[in-house]
Amino acid sequence: MMQMTIEVDLDYLLAAPGAAILSIEAAETEGQQILASDLRLDPALAPRLVPGDEGVGRKMALHVPERLRCCYRAELRIDRSVPDLPRLAALPVEDLPAEALRALMPSRYCDPIRFLAYVGTRFGDLSGGPLVAALAEWVQGALTYVPGVSGADTTATDTFVQRQGVCRDYAHLLIALCRAGQVPARIASVYAHSVEPQDFHAVVQVYLDGAWHLVDPTGMASADQMALVAVGRDAVDVAFLTTITPASMSDQSVLVRQIL
Predict the structure, then answer these.
(1) Which three-class secondary structure string do you get for 38-55?
(2) Is the pTM of this model over 0.90?
(3) Under CATH, what is the fold of the domain 85-238?
(4) Which residues have CB under 8 Å from 255's CB, separation 6+?
(5) Across-strand partners of 9?
(6) Averaged pLDDT in 10-residue chunks for the chain of 260 residues
(7) Which of 100, 120, 178, 208 could pair covalently with 183 via S-S, beta carbons 3.0-4.6 A apart?
């Protein structure tokens, strides 16, 4: 069990007034408890609260003038164990719940069909948790963490070829590989104090033994040190800020501290 504090400050300029979706609050969900939280918007807008994908967390939909400032503070207790992946089994596809079935399907950034031959050839003797553990280890070792080399259009296939990227690229590649191995996988946005540089962090959730388990293919954070924010098919579903009109960053900071 551990406690952490989260401090997020955002300052964005929009090309024109328009709609925006914020997804930055830690979720009230299994494995973590929000002890205190405070969210302030400037100007003082009244967002419409919308349940997050698969019922995890919530999003804020709002109409923004040409500038949006956001200040989020929270203190959480994390009571989540690190999954022992090699001991976890995959369920037969026909026994999966709807949310897990969706996490087997291709999505914008993660197309498992492109990786069927590779996973079958290199990891064909593994399944379930042992497969996920081997794939996560391979991704961590095969890729180099390099900010700025990927962008909004970079797919898991691109990352497999380039062998470098940032956390969302690591996550997309592991998701595509897991799906190719018949393990449901989806992206998760989290906060973690051990992430360098400090920022919004993307990891993976896999469905094994009837439950979702967090895995960080960058190796920077473990499941017992993460505050879950949102989940989705890929990065499109968990973006911390989505705007209809173009937006440029004036300032952004994320600071996560372990306090206990």
Answers:
(1) EEEEECCCCCEEEECHHH
(2) yes
(3) C8orf32 fold (3.10.620)
(4) 6, 7, 8, 198
(5) 71, 253
(6) 96 94 97 97 89 96 93 98 97 96 98 97 97 98 96 96 98 98 98 95 98 98 97 97 93 95
(7) 178
Question: Where does the chain hold its CATH 3.10.620.30 domain(s)?
Answer: 85-238
CATH topology of domain 2-79+240-258: Immunoglobulin-like (2.60.40)
| DSSP characters over 57-96 | SEEEEEEE-SEEEEEEEEEEEE--PPP-GGG--PPPGGG-
Read off the amino acid at residue 67. Answer: R
Give Cα 146 to chain centroid, integer Å: 18
Check if the beta carbon of residue 9 is closer than 8 Å to that of residue 45.
no
Looking at the chain, the domain(s) classified CATH 2.60.40.2250 span 2-79+240-258
φ, ψ for residue 161, nearest 5 deg: -75, -45
Q: How far is CA 112 from CA 20, 86, 157, in A?
A: 31, 22, 9
Residues contacting residue 41 through CB under 8 Å, at least 6 positions apart: 47, 62, 68, 69, 70
Length of the chain: 260
Peptide bond into 197 cis (omega under 30): yes
Element (H, E) at 201: strand 201-208
